[in-house]
Amino acid sequence: MIHLDDNLTLTDDGFVTCAHCNTRLGENSHDPLAHAVKRERPSRDAGPGVHADPKTFTAREIVLRQFFCPGCSTVLVTEIVPRDEPSFRHWSLDANRGN
Amino acid sequence: MPLIHVAGSEKFEFEERLSDELRAIASKFVSLHLVDAAAELAIDPLTYEVIRHRLSAITDDMGDALKRMSGSVVVTDCNDFNAAIADETGDLILVGQYNMQLAASLDMAIKWTLEHRSENPGLRPGDMFFCNDPWIGGGLHQNDASVFAPLFYDGELFAWSGAVCHQVDLGGVSPGSWSVAGTDVFWESTPVPPVKIVENGNLRPDIEDMYLRRSRVPKLIALDLRAKLGANNVAQQRLTQLIDKYGPRVVKAVMKKMMHDAEHRLRSKLRSLPDGTWGAVAHQDGARAGDSNIYKIVLQMTKHDDKLIFDFTGTDAQVEGFINCTFAGVRGGIMPIIMTMLCNDIPWAPGGIYRCVEIISERGTINNCTFPAGIGKASVASAWATQNAVSECVAQMVGTHPQHRKAAMSCCQGTWDLALLAGVDQRGAPFVTMLCDPMAGGLGARVDQDGVDTGGQMPIPMGRIADVEINEFSFPMLYLWRREEMDSGGPGRYRGGLGGSSCFIPHDSPLHGVHLVVSAPGKALPLAPGLAGGYPSATSYDVLMRDTNVQKILAQGFIPGDLDEIDGRHEVLPSHVETDMAANDVYFTHWQGGGGYGDPLRRDPREVALDVASFRVSPRAASDVYGVILKTDGTADAGATEARRGDLRRDRIGEGAA
């Protein structure tokens, strides 16, 4: 078993699970968040740290994009990005090597 | 005018060559010292450590010499410089702990010089070369001017020393050489490929004049030039003494072993980590004044066995503006992260570390641009963004290891919030300076602790900010405040370190104002992402208040502590702008903190309460982001917090949430 980060565990049988509630998030480490819940909201929903409306600076829509565990709703990935872009924050692990 | 390729500019683009290949080219014109592998094997551990530490001390001495001779606050008080020692073919043996981005490309300039200058004008004892051409190396934008010198011993080229620092103005359309309206390099300071500026120990006045003529503050630049010559002189003297004592064979063997050790230990660490691929993206909003587009650098980092491959395929094409960087910027974005996050227990010998790295980057993109793309802001634009993406990928990889994970850190301060002041100072002399207060950026959160508030920047371990009083003494400005800013650290189970803000007015200039150049992306979206669900840092936020009553407030004996306490016209500034500040104008600049780590709803409510009590987190963020409800005495209300967090969790994914 590998603790991938604060929230994710790679089990000995190759599943990616939530470290908090054991919900299976991915069938393998090449698509680790296949079952995560994706949500997009206005970027200012991230809190007062987003000082100004993005429309002040750009015509592109900026969103707070997050992926959650469907079991306990722990946030697994957070990014603030242009809505028209895919998420580039993906990873794939070859669990058979290293460690 | 669109960017049109300049025929012949390829000559000035660094081309990677194996050391043996380079040796063969240069050896036709200069004798290069060579040591065999047996010498390296013969070194006893004690001698190795003594010489290794001596070399490190020489690099420190170079830094001290540079600081003591420079007259620029950017160097003397903020440490925006670095020094390095390289072997005979330019492989870096070690770099100082100052701005590692700058030093990460000194080897490129040395190698180019070996290839293109060995024959004519030739390399001889007492020579030094100047370079500020980032396509060749030695720095990331034209303001990073480097001086490097071959060290000869017994008639052979034994090694190189090099020093580089940020120059406050080297010409171009805008003061400080930050031409925010520029569309290509011709708006900027002219890059100078390596030229022999010191010959046989004598500074060449013709070359120096050519260099200084372009600057708005030539005397200051002349002083910095001498500081770099002095740093190289220190290195040459100390290295010669070292070789006199131990002999060239032993010293060179130590140099080679330092690089081999770094390579071997990094490869060993990489083998202990799982193979895989990690993706990241780094944005910048605006390539020049008036531009509202958003640009991206895409990275896919693959770790295979004992090698790291950084693939930037998918990165946006180079753009009309001044945010592009050359290949030196890519290296400047990679090397500091590897050294601080992966080599925290490994000697910083980039020549060995680079051997573990492969870079895939398409020419003509914003972080590997071709001439004549604008690069005036490269160091803190696309090179910095490259560093953000690299930081995110390396941290995720390191975070999978049970021991090494403690070195993982979320992204630090996602950008540099540039404020450049120019005009006439209180002594009646022309001045230009970059305000280095953003050097106190927030560090990213770690896997087990908060990021350090205004802790600095990962690639500049020795970076610091000048005292407020030093800035006020040196420049016609008066601070209303400089402080850490609430909610600027990315929320998370572990919070990102806070960024800060400065607020000042022009003061005591005979012109009754100053010229202001602002360049700070990260306003449409934050640029320091978090990890493991942690939130990014705050956005940058710059406000210029016009025609205020600040002088009246000061005359009444009060110092405003917030923009709300000042009357005036409130202008939220775009990413890039150039303007003038009058005596009654107030400028507020708020730079970013570090990214958070983990889910903020899993942060200990007691920590959130402490954050609120110490003005690190606002009550609004405590409730809306951390889900912590405070009692009237400031402590966390356990029951109300549990209920609030339950509501927020249900809001995240619907009623099905636990």
Rg for CA atoms of chain A: 16 Å
How many strand segments of chain A? 8
Question: Fraction of residues of chain B in helices?
Answer: 25-40%
Helix and strand sequence of chain A: EEEEEEEE
Q: What percentage of amino acids of chain A are in beta strands?
A: 35-45%
Gap from first CA to last CA of chain A? 10 Å
Instruction: List the uncertain runs of chain A.
Output: none
What's the story with the biggest beta sheet of chain B? 7 strands, antiparallel
- Determine the strand fraction of chain B and express it as a percent band: 15-25%
- Specify the helix fraction band of chain A: under 10%
How many helices of chain B does DSSP assign?
17
Notes on the structure:
The complex is a heterodimer of chains A (99) and B (658). The N and C termini of chain A lie close together (10 Å). Chain A is 0% helix and 36% strand. Chain A contains no helices and 8 strands. In chain A, the strands form 2 sheets. In chain A, strands 1-2-3-4 form a 4-stranded antiparallel β-sheet, with no helix packed on it. Chain A has a 3-stranded antiparallel β-sheet with strand order 5-6-7, with no helix packed on it. In chain A, a hairpin with a 4-residue loop joins β1 and β2. Chain A has strands at residues 2-3, 8-10, 16-18, 24-26, 37-42, 62-68, 75-82, 91-94. Chain A has 99 residues and is mainly beta. With 658 residues, chain B is an alpha+beta fold. Chain B has helices spanning 19-26, 37-42, 45-69, 73-76, 100-103, 106-122, 205-212, 218-246, 248-271, 327-342, 350-353, 382-398, 468-474, 550-555, 605-613, 619-624, 638-653, and strands spanning 81-87, 92-95, 128-131, 144-153, 156-166, 195-199, 202-203, 275-285, 294-304, 307-311, 357-360, 418-424, 430-434, 477-484, 500-506, 513-519, 541-546, 569-572, 576-582, 586-590. In chain B, the strands form 4 sheets. A 7-stranded antiparallel β-sheet of chain B has the order 2-1-5-4-3-6-7, with helices on both faces. A 5-stranded antiparallel β-sheet of chain B has the order 14-15-20-17-18. The radius of gyration of chain B is 25 Å and the shape is globular. The mean pLDDT of chain B is 96.
